[in-house]
Design a protein that fits this description.
The complex is a heterodimer of chains A (about 270) and B (about 270).
Chain A (H helix, E strand, L loop, with lengths): L1 H12 L8 E9 L5 E10 L4 E5 L6 H8 L7 E6 L2 E2 L5 H9 L1 E4 L11 H6 L19 H13 L15 H14 L4 E5 L7 H17 L3 E5 L3 H6 L3 E6 L2 E7 L5 H5 L8
Parallel strand pairs in A: 3-8, 3-9, 6-7, 7-8
Antiparallel strand pairs in A: 1-2, 1-4, 4-5, 9-10
Helix pairs in contact in A: 5-6, 6-7
Chain B lengths: L2 H9 L8 H20 L4 H18 L7 H33 L7 H16 L2 H12 L3 H25 L3 H10 L3 H35 L8 H9 L3 H29 L1
The chains are: A alpha/beta (about 270), B mainly alpha (about 270).
The complex binds adenosine-5'-triphosphate (ATP) and magnesium ion.
């Protein structure tokens, strides 16, 4: 059912297989009274492709992915997603676009005083703007069922009623992934989803993200400071340096020594 | 004293040299305080005469006269109902107003400034002045008291609700924005749950504050026990006045105790 709906949406917007899910041209961003963070970034992501974005601390990776959904307004450049001109969207259609993109943050950003189930149900907010998507107690049963299915997918159906502040870091991040699945996304962006977790939990989260994106045939753009994750869970690696794309290679023939230059913590 | 030590002492003076303007301001402030004390007419001989008089009043208050206790309690109940009613109405109205007044949550800055201005007006005009205003508008009686307390509550709770919402974690708000949630959805599902402990604590404070305020509103005819107290003093019936003061004291203490117990349980 999920696939059928996302399929219908694709037909609506008129995008075709050949067209990239996301294509960015000459994107630039500088903060007021700050230096220029991005100065002309070009990137294209094909449907179903998984891309790792790497770069040293402060090179603007987070800024870049936030600009894609206009959580931060870019200064200049073109962003096309699902064939839509993102920078030209009205606030209403921007909300609709955001609902089609799942976003996982470094900090899980759950509402701590609500249950895991309520947090997952929040994923449905764009398609039902009624109080039914605010708290699980008010949600219609089909919404609760769908949320439970998402929690099962991340193996946390046993914790549905637990408050978010009682969960471990790894569990919280899995709830965030379930919330993302509840959106029925067509594309997934993740900003260092593995960074605040221990190595094992971090790997589990990356595998879960990669698998869920694969199952649904979704494109995935993720940021990671873990070289191994970047290589293993991507088809392509894009390196950012000095506000521009400085590397764009297929993951299977990436040269680890070359990649290491993009990781601040691994000095040569 | 050697010249070197002298030089050190002047380089690091013990007191900052005040500017001429600061000096004038300090002197004027001092003069104003002295002048205020002299115009208000509080003098030692007035105090000396006042203290025995106070003793006399206290003496005539005991034993408190319990004859009219049933009437007094009935009127105390009305006072408390006035406080609760006005407070609940005020809290309900402060919530939307606080959303409009909160930085980063309000739809736009003109609305925010207007909402803040209204809340500030409600807060800065004293409750007794509001009571006088509503007595003229809706007539003598508890209705005027309820309105006065409502407005006073909005002035207090509106400000603290807005601050509680501004202080909530920005992460969940950004997550909801990234999901494509509406403004109302984001507020209700990410801001309100996180601000809830603060909301409850503020609401309990409001009930306490309203209870204290409701006692004096009767003095200007806005209903409740205040009028009984005024009548008792006007008739020099200090024994009845003592009963009224004691029941007020007990009500306020009970409300404060219940309030702080609840607050401790929630936080
Ligand atoms: N809201 C902001 N206002 C001003 N400057 C900002 C803002 N957000 C980020 N910056 C600056 O932009 C630069 C890029 O930040 P960004 O968070 O995008 O880097 P990053 O590549 O994600 O780094 P990290 O690997 O540490 O997450 C930094 O120098 C940062 O100081
Ligand atoms: Mg970052």
């Amino acid at each position: 059912m999920l696939d059928r709906i996302s399929g219908l949406r694709t037909v609506e917007t008129g995008s075709t297989e050949a067209e990239p899910t996301l294509s960015v041209r000459r994107l630039s961003k500088s903060f007021t009274n700050g230096p220029c963070v991005l100065s002309g970034v070009d990137i294209a992501i094909r449907p179903g492709e998984s891309v790792a974005l790497i770069g040293a601390n402060g090179t603007g990776k987070s800024t870049f992915v936030r600009c894609l959904l206009r959580l931060i307004e870019p200064n200049d450049g073109d962003i096309r997603m699902f064939g839509l001109d993102v920078r030209a969207l009205t606030s209403r259609s921007l909300r609709h676009l955001r609902s089609r993109v799942g976003f996982v943050f470094q900090r899980h950003n759950l509402v701590l005083r609500l249950s895991a189930l309520s947090n997952v149900i929040h994923g449905a907010q764009a398609r039902m703007s009624s109080p039914g998507s605010w708290y699980q107690a008010l949600a219609p049963s089909r919404v609760r069922d769908e949320a439970m299915t998402c929690l099962e997918r991340v193996s946390l159906d046993g914790k549905a009623c637990a408050r978010a502040d009682s969960l471990s870091g790894g569990q919280s991040q899995r709830v965030a992934i379930a919330r993302m699945l509840m959106q029925r996304p067509e594309f997934v962006i993740a900003d260092e989803p593995d960074a605040s977790l221990d190595p094992r939990a971090g790997e589990e989260i990356m595998r879960l993200l990669h698998e869920t994106a694969r199952e649904r045939g979704l494109g995935l753009l993720f940021i990671s400071h873990d070289l191994e994750h970047a290589i293993r869970f991507s088809d392509r690696i894009v390196g950012l340096a000095a506000g521009q794309v400085a590397l764009d290679v297929r993951s299977n023939n990436a040269n680890p020594t070359e990649l290491r230059k993009f990781f601040a913590e691994e000095r040569p | 004293m050697t010249s070197a030590r002298f030089a050190a002492a002047t380089r690091y003076p013990r007191f900052e040299q005040p500017s001429a303007l600061a000096f004038i301001l300090w002197v004027s402030a001092l003069a104003f305080i002295v002048w205020s004390l002299s115009t208000t007419g509080l003098s030692f001989d007035r105090l000396a005469r006042g203290i025995p008089a106070m003793g006399g009043i206290l003496e005539r208050m005991f034993p408190p006269d319990l004859d009219r206790l049933d009437r007094i309690l009935a009127s105390l109940l009305v006072t408390f109902q006035m406080a609760v009613g006005g407070c609940v109405l005020g809290l309900i109205l402060s919530f939307p107003l606080a959303i409009l007044a909160a930085d980063g949550i309000s739809p736009n800055s003109i609305v925010r400034v207007a909402a803040r201005g209204l809340i500030a007006l409600f807060r800065t005009v004293p409750d007794l002045v509001w009571a006088l205003f509503f007595v003229i508008a809706v007539g003598l009686g508890p209705a005027a008291g309820v309105l006065a307390i409502m407005v006073d509550t909005i002035g207090y709770a509106g400000r603290f609700f807005a601050e509680a919402m501004e202080e909530t974690d920005k992460g969940p708000r950004e997550a909801l924005a990234a999901i494509g949630a509406s403004r109302l959805g984001t507020i209700m599902s990410a801001v309100v749950p996180n601000a809830m402990p603060n909301f409850i604590a503020t609401s309990l404070f409001c009930v306490e504050k309203a209870t204290r305020a409701s006692v004096v509103l009767g003095l200007v005819g806005a209903g409740g026990i205040g009028i009984e107290l005024k009548v008792a003093f006007d008739l020099f019936d200090y024994a009845t006045a003592a009963t009224i003061i004691l029941v007020i004291f007990m009500l306020v203490i009970i409300v404060e105790q219940v309030g702080s117990t609840l607050r401790r349980q929630i936080i």
